[in-house]
Every structure is written in C-alpha cells, then in structure tokens.
Amino acid sequence: MQKAFRLDETDKRKLSFLYSHSKINSRYSVIRDFGFPDEDWQFISMNGKPNVSLNERMDLFREYALPLSVEAVEKCIDGFIKPEEITHLITVSCTGMSAPGLDLQVAEAMQLRSDIFRTSVNFMGCYAAIHALKMAKMICDGSQSAKVVIVATELCTIHFQKDYSIDNAASSLLFADGSAAVLVSNSVEKKGGLNLDHFYSEVAYKGKSDMSWELSNNGFLMTLSSYIPQLIEEDILALVNKALEKSNISREEISHWCLHPGGNKILEVIKQQLELREEDLNYSRKVLSEYGNMSSPTILFVLKEIMENLNEAPAKVFGVAFGPGLTMETFIASTHES
C-alpha cells in the first residue's frame, strides 16, 4: 500500500503504524495482484496509471461474486436440504450491482426452482446481513414450510482508490472480500442451531456524514470518519439496553456477544461501554484477525464461530453491527429448546 499510494517517507511511517495497530493478520481478495511481486501488479498500479474504471470493477464482481456465493450456499445447505428445496433466496451486497443481479445468477447456476421468491438487500453496508436475517424471520413466521437462504457476498478490495486520503488509507487496511450463507427454516433441525428471537435497530442521524458509500466513475467511494468509534461509544449502551428491554431479556441472560468487528478501536469501545470481559470478544477478534472487515458477511463469520463452539448449556446470543446512517442493527438468538 505504501508503494501503491506512492507515499513519501513520513506518510509511509504513518501508514505502517496504522497497519501494525489494526490487529488484522490476514485478509482475502479476488484481486490477483496480491499473489504476485509488486512489479507485476496490474489492477492496483504502482505507476501513474489512472484509477480503474467502474466498468472494470463491475467486471471483476461479475466474474468472482457468483462462484463465491454458490460455494457459500452449497456449504451451508449440505446435509440439510437440496437446492431445489430452497423456497426463498435473499442476496446481500453493497460492492456490486447489476440486472439481472446476483440473485438471478445464483438461482440459475444452482438450478433453483423457477418460482423461487427472490429479493436483494443492496447498499446497506456492514449491518445488512442482520437486516436479511430479520426478513428471513418474517418470511418464516408467515410460512411454516419456508426454507430461506441468505447469501452475503462482498468484494470490497475491487474498489481500491489510488488517491491517498485518510478514508482511502483506512479502507485499504480494513476491508477484504468474503461470502457467507445462512439457512433459516422452521422445519430443518440442526444440533447447535439457533432460534431468531428478537431484532432491534436505530439510526444515529448525527453520524450520517461519518460513514457513507457512494458511486463514482472511479468505483465506490468510502467515507470512514475517525469519529465513528466515538459515535458508537456515545450510543452503544443505550442501544443495547433498549434492545434488551424490548425483548424482556436481562444482560445477565446473554451468554455470547456477536459483535461486528468494524475495527479494533470499535471493539475496544464496545468492550468498555458494555463492561464486557476480554473473552466476550474472542470470536469477533478472531474473525478480524483472520479475515479483516468483509462488510456484510463479517457478522455471519462471527456467528458461525459462536455456533461451532456452543456446548450443551442453553445459550443466548446478542448480535450487533453498524453501517451507513449511522445505522445500528441488533439481533438476539437462542439455542433450540430440547
């Protein structure tokens, strides 16, 4: 990134400092440059080549989003249902858009039923998967036989901007590519599965200019203010208390915290304001360390870590994610009653 941004020695040291304090050890990208020596990079140019056009970026999304999404769905439903049993498909993305979109592409590639119910959650950012879970619960509440699949796929790295700014530097160090899928149903049994019990969301309009995601000729432009941790610090305790109150659940009943790892500083702020133990952040820190922030799939990666480590004891999971708005979405889920 120091070379890609063509930084002087002072800015190189600043960027190095930010990276070293990110608590991110690895991330994934569909851009092949990252597997090659610097001199062979093409998408992220090391010379005076202009920024990559929006068309070129969307070409990459069309090439890579579909196979990633299909793989995520196949892994998700394997051993539970067959593709033709999926009744509803919800696709989630804020890093690529087209018509026909990812929903139709997945349906065709997996040969899903032609009368499948499809919908898309677009351009909502990091909290979008919780919004999709909320939609899936509404569908299942209205149809006992529904088998809803959500697939959240983001290719954040295809929107790298070579012009050096604080926002672009933050994006280059935080964001990564990934895909996650969820099966939501009233009838599919899984040991260690979870019931979706409650949802609650709020918008802090004072933060609407501090986190945004806009289209431009040169790709999607991220605004990521340094004030975001401060805004979350001001609002997170009240948000959690309201969500618990509306659900008639006490703090003491929560056994697992599924926190969107938007960044290390955000996790530290949440830990402090909610007076959490260090182990309460283990799953979020693990995902941040191994994958970075993948936008919408990230909270599902954390949820998967939690579900794979549940024991026989009853569990209540409190999840929260943040995105443009500044929007804060929460959910509460619990283990199935025996």
In N-to-C order, the SSE pattern is HHEHEHEHEEEEHEHHHEE
- Across the major sheet, the strand order is 2-1-3-4
Basic shape = globular
Structural class: alpha/beta
Low-confidence stretches: none
Radius of gyration over alpha carbons? 20 Å
Determine the strand fraction and express it as a percent band.
15-25%
User: Which percent range fits the helix content?
Assistant: 25-40%
Number of strands: 10
CA(first)-CA(last) distance: 52 Å
Enter the CATH topology name of the domain at 194-335: Peroxisomal Thiolase, Chain A, domain 1
pLDDT averaged over residues: 91
Largest sheet, described in full?
A: 4 strands, mixed
Helix count, DSSP H or I runs of 4 or more residues: 9
CATH architecture tag of the domain at 194-335: 3-Layer(aba) Sandwich
What secondary-structure arrangement, pairings included, does this model have?
Layout: H1 9-20, H2 54-77, E1 88-93, H3 102-109, E2 117-122, H4 128-142, E3 147-155, H5 166-174, E4 177-185, E5 194-203, E6 211-216, E7 219-224, H6 228-247, E8 256-259, H7 264-274, H8 282-291, H9 298-308, E9 316-323, E10 327-335
Parallel strand pairs: 1-2, 1-3, 8-9
Antiparallel strand pairs: 3-4, 5-10, 6-7, 9-10
